[in-house]
Amino acid sequence: MQVGDILRRKTPRVVTVRMNETVGIAAQLMRANNISALVVKDVVRSEGNTAVGMFTERDVVRAIAEHGAAGVNLKVSQLVPVQRLVACSSSDTLEHVRHLMKVHHIRHLPVIDNFALAGVISMRDVSAAFDEAASGAPKAA
Length: 141
Fold this sequence. Notes:
Layout: H1 3-7, E1 16-18, H2 23-33, E2 37-42, E3 50-56, H3 57-67, H4 94-104, E4 108-113, E5 116-122, H5 123-135
Parallel strand pairs: 1-2
Antiparallel strand pairs: 2-3, 4-5
Helix pairs in contact: 2-3, 4-5
């Protein structure tokens, strides 16, 4: 099974946050959309509207743990690593995605096709797909 097989079953909407937004705004976006991760976009650089990372509930917890209540005023850019973005494509296999998640200790991957954000795949999506394949019956989303 490929990533694209999962994306076709999911809502095409991907919730994003800009690097210059605060942790508080990011947390509100996650809560309002009932999700645990946001794709971080860099709309300042010359490359334009580009996915540069993932901001997760773990980042919110780290901001509060390290800075107390003032952590909600930190910029997302202060918590998102500036290293290379770990991503996959819709043609990647779920085995490859599971390997990436394991090696990088992450639970969400942006899906990038032809330099454009196509969606997000989570460890839950991967696990459900493997469960479905093992049982032979589709799981309810």
